[in-house]
């Protein structure tokens, strides 16, 4: 996919009708691309999450979900299709999650970063919490970022 047309990706809250598209992106990135078992990706928690979908040139190119936890929110299933990686889609998805979490009243956002994405999250202001661990046979690191309250929508 060429990065032409739309000047930048459009990030939106995904509705119930968009969940199949989110799952398709996650399947492509995690199941097919990284060998994560589908049962791990489809963990039964999607109904408790707010989902985000990135479009570029009218095509879905990324997704992420935000799961509320006691006292914080967790960014999960952040996935960008290979054709547009490195072009800012992941950053825009994370900004959308952060904004939504802050507006919803969460003081911080946590995540489990794959080892290959630790630098990406560090550049976004996330800090390591603890030691690396295996999740779905991939090294991860727990990370967190304090959010600043935001008003409006």
End-to-end span in angstroms?
31 Å
How many DSSP-defined strands?
8
CATH-derived architecture: 3-Layer(aba) Sandwich
Strand content: 25-35%
Low-confidence stretches: none
Q: Note the main sheet.
A: 8 strands, mixed
Report on this model:
By secondary structure, this protein is an alpha+beta fold. The chain has one domain (10-146): Aminopeptidase. It contains four helices and eight strands, in the order E-H-H-E-E-E-H-E-H-E-E-E. The N and C termini lie far apart (31 Å). The relative contact order is 0.16. The mean pLDDT is 93.
Helices and strands, with pairings:
Layout: E1 10-13, H1 19-34, H2 38-41, E2 50-56, E3 59-69, E4 72-80, H3 89-103, E5 108-114, H4 118-123, E6 127-128, E7 133-135, E8 138-146
Parallel strand pairs: 4-5
Antiparallel strand pairs: 1-2, 2-3, 3-4, 5-8, 6-8, 7-8
Question: Concise description?
Answer:
This protein has 153 residues and is an alpha+beta fold. The chain has one domain: Gcn5-related N-acetyltransferase (GNAT) (Aminopeptidase, 3-Layer(aba) Sandwich), CATH 3.40.630.
Task: Throw out a few tags for this protein.
153 residues, alpha+beta, Aminopeptidase, eight-stranded mixed sheet, 8 strands, 34% strand
């Amino acid at each position: 996919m060429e990065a032409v047309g739309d000047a930048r990706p459009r990030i939106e809250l995904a509705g119930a009708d968009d969940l199949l598209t989110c799952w398709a992106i996650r399947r492509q990135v995690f199941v097919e691309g990284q060998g994560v078992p589908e049962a791990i990706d489809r963990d039964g928690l999607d109904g408790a999450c707010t989902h985000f979908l990135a479009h570029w040139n009218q095509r879905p190119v990324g997704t992420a979900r935000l799961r509320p936890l006691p006292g914080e929110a967790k960014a999960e299933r952040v996935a960008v299709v290979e054709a547009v990686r490195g072009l800012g889609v992941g950053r825009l998805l994370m900004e959308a999650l952060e904004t939504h979490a802050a507006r919803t009243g969460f003081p911080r956002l946590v995540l489990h970063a794959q080892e290959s994405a630790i630098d990406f999250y560090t550049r976004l202001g996330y800090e390591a919490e603890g030691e690396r661990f295996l999740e779905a046979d991939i090294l991860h690191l727990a990370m967190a970022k304090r959010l600043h309250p935001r008003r409006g929508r």
